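Deliverable D5.2: sample structural annotation.
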Amino acid sequence: MSTEAMGAASADAPAPPPPPEAADDSNHGRRELRSVSQRFTNISYSPLRMNLVAKLLRRLTVPEALAQSTFTKKKGGAIAKDLIERCASVAEMKYGLSHDQLLVDKIFVTQGKGQKMVRTMGRGRTGIEFVRNSHLNVTLTEIDFEDRIRAASTRNQQTKWKKLEARAGSRAARP
């Protein structure tokens, strides 16, 4: 086959399909919610005990989570409060979001590196004690109030989200 015939054959080939349009994205017109993640590592506290605090704070707004962690008697409550406050301040600096506009989307605990220590016991005996460490991971996400109000199953929940939206809007409007 000659080069002229190959050139004619490639000119008759159909053009590639156009790229998909931006309107076909899977978000259906929703905007991407902003989020911030932070973590504390090597906390000298058992992962099982820290997980109890994490379960308490999961899916709460930041002011509610700070209040719950303040009045928790567990040591992990103070640690979680510090991390949530730090993460909220990063969100405020990075995106200009106030505490009222943030939700504790993810908070989970992973096991850190453990350490074996000598445990002294009575009658001159010794044993081995394993001291556990944990890592605490927090992700704060911007609240989509319209979506929350629509998804609320009761009128009281709708009222709650409307009040939170009004409070967040009034605090965001302050200089």
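Annotation notes: Strands lie at 35-43, 102-111, 115-120, 126-131, 134-142. The CA atoms of residues 35 and 141 lie 4 Å apart.
The annotation will be released with the project's public dataset once the embargo ends.
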